[in-house]
Every structure is written in structure tokens, then in C-alpha cells.
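can u do me a favor
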């Protein structure tokens, strides 16, 4: 396999695994998740809605035909998470030692690197969106 292919798969798997792993907390109304979305003023619908969007995004990332759309969507989601940490939640949420923020940064970096590596695909997608 080519290096770019291996790296791309690694980045996609990293993002998908992190998105899927956090779904447990969102869908079971874990107290930490409820705390986060309460602080953001969108509990419970924001928590559940974002969980559904993250599930769909993780699936899109894993499917060959929609992987770049999924990574673009994930970048949007994670930018919202990072800004939420900076503006509302703080880095250390519920005494997690910055764990959630670290995962958000990992996803942000993985998405950014993937989209940089596949910039031609990103441009093609964006061209299709123009009226």
C-alpha cells in the first residue's frame, strides 16, 4: 500500500473511532455529557441531535464514496467542540484533566491533515456546491 493510503486510512479510523466512542456518553445521558450540554444550553436535544449527526458522520468517513464529505462534516463538528471548550466549558471538563479537549484536538488535526492530503477531492466537492 502507498504511504498516502495508509495515512489516510489511519486518519479516517482515528476520527471515526473517537466519534463513535463518545456516542455512548451522549446516548446514555451520562452525567458528564449532560453537564456539557446543559452548560451549552442545549440539553437534551443538542446532545441527542449531535450524537445522531456524529453517528452519520462516522459512517460517512468509513464509506469509500463519502469519506471526504464525512471528514469535512467532522471538521465542522470538531471546530464547534473546540470553540465550546475555549468559550464556555474550559479545557478541564468535570475534572477530566483535559481529556475531552485533547480528543477534540486530535480529531481537529486528523481531519485537517486528511483534508490537506485530499485537497483536490475537497475542491471538487466544493465546486459541486456552487450554484
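np, heres the sequence
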Amino acid at each position: 500500500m502507498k504511504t498516502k493510503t495508509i495515512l489516510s486510512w489511519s486518519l479516517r479510523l482515528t476520527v471515526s473511532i473517537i466519534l463513535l466512542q463518545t456516542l455512548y456518553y451522549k446516548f446514555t445521558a451520562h452525567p458528564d455529557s449532560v453537564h456539557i450540554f446543559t452548560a451549552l444550553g442545549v440539553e437534551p436535544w443538542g446532545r441527542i441531535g449531535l450524537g445522531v449527526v456524529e453517528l452519520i458522520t462516522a459512517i460517512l468517513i468509513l464509506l469509500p464514496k463519502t469519506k471526504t464529505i464525512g471528514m469535512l462534516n467532522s471538521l465542522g463538528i470538531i471546530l464547534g467542540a473546540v470553540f465550546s471548550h475555549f468559550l464556555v466549558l474550559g479545557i478541564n471538563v468535570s475534572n477530566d484533566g483535559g481529556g475531552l479537549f485533547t480528543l477534540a484536538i486530535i480529531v481537529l488535526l486528523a481531519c485537517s491533515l486528511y483534508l490537506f492530503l485530499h485537497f483536490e477531492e475537497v475542491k471538487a466537492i466544493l465546486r459541486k456546491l456552487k450554484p
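The radius of gyration is 15 Å. hope that helps!!
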